[in-house]
Specification:
By secondary structure, the protein is α/β, with parallel strands linked by helices. The protein has 2 domains: 133 residues, Nucleotidyltransferase, domain 5; 172 residues, Nucleotidyltransferase, domain 5. The chain is built from 12 helices and 13 strands. Helix 3 packs across helix 11, helix 5 runs antiparallel to helix 7 and helix 7 crosses helix 9. The longest helix is centred in the last third of the chain and has 25 residues. The two termini are 22 Å apart. The protein binds zinc ion (ZN). The site of zinc ion has 5 residues, from loops.
């Protein structure tokens, strides 16, 4: 009989909750809810609780069929105590999420951060499966990475290792959400790309992407992809620029850490081959010759699901 657990990925804009078969990595059922408009902790916590109830109901399972609950949050966390210290994008601060969910469901709850769970997902059932030393880089709202050495994640002294998004690629450059200037994620994250496109349109540049945009809807990956396919000048220029910065950050990682493999994930990497190809080609050119010769690149295999699969496996990972 298979073993199941619930995995939750609490991202910058959404909650993704799924029932995962822990033996095969299969996502049996999942629910996605937006959090953007939610203000106040109570509301978001209630939403998390509801997704768990709904996903069980939809799958026809009860809590008895589930071994535990794993959750990963985009922000600073206390793994031991199970507290979300702060998750700025979702307006959460000092939330004892482990305690709250354990009380509600009477199941053990494990907490990680978003990059950690996505890396664990790829480690067990994705592109890291047969590898031991690699770096998983996820390009999303921000840019984060998980460092895997001898099959284990490196957390660093304060548990914050892998913050590749805050590598400084432009001294005195664009301001970053961290308070600094010139950080990689201010140039190459999904958010940065969106901002650049919208900024250029406001300044009067024209682009194919205007055909898909509406007032209240954000830019979607599919729109960027369409405009690139249509050889739109503006979108191509901005994607090229981002690949230029991202490849510089990745080349620095190759030089500094000398990994055998870099796994690239996140919506844009996943959906837009051109972005992936250009970034990896440039990174190889920019890195020092010896480590560059040994580097392999792979796309993250699990797409949007790497986080929930990894969250569902947090207990398995930590007991090893
Ligand atoms: Zn920064």
């Amino acid at each position: 009989m298979s073993r199941y657990s619930i995995g939750i990925d609490l991202g910058g804009t959404k909650i993704l909750t799924g029932i995962i078969n822990k033996d095969t990595g299969e996502v049996e059922t999942y629910i996605k809810k937006k959090t953007k408009k939610d203000k106040g902790q109570e509301k978001i916590i209630q939403k998390i609780i509801n997704t768990i109830k709904n996903v069980l109901e939809e799958n026809g399972k009860t809590l008895n069929d589930i071994e535990e609950i794993g959750i990963g949050a985009a922000g600073q966390i206390d793994r031991e105590k199970g507290i979300i210290i702060n998750a700025p994008n979702i307006d959460l601060e000092n939330v004892e999420i482990k305690k709250i969910l354990e009380r509600e469901f009477n199941k053990k709850v494990y907490l990680g951060n978003d990059v950690e769970i996505a890396t664990i997902g790829e480690m067990y059932f994705g592109s890291g499966k047969s590898e031991k030393d690699y770096v998983c880089i996820f390009v999303g709202t921000g840019i984060g990475s998980g460092i895997v050495q001898e099959g284990r994640l490196r957390y660093g002294t304060t548990g914050t290792a892998g913050e590749i998004g805050h590598i400084i690629v432009d001294l005195g450059g664009r301001s970053c959400g961290c308070g600094g200037c010139g950080c990689l994620e201010a140039y190459a994250s999904r958010l940065a790309i969106e901002k650049r496109i919208i900024g250029a349109l406001k300044k009067g540049r024209h682009s194919d992407i205007e055909n898909y945009l509406t007032e209240d809807k954000p830019i979607k990956t599919s729109m960027i992809k369409k405009s690139l396919d249509n050889k739109d000048e503006l979108v191509t220029q901005i994607i090229n620029e981002s690949a230029e910065y991202l490849s510089s950050g990745i080349a620095s990682v190759i030089n500094f850490y000398n990994p055998s493999l870099i796994i690239l994930g996140g919506g844009l990497m996943n959906a837009i081959d051109y972005f992936y190809e250009r970034t990896t080609e440039l990174a190889k050119i920019k890195a020092l010759p010896t480590p560059a010769l040994a580097i392999k690149f792979k796309k993250a295999m699990l797409g949007d699901f790497s986080g929930i699969i990894g969250a569902a496996l947090l207990k398995e990972y930590r007991k090893n």
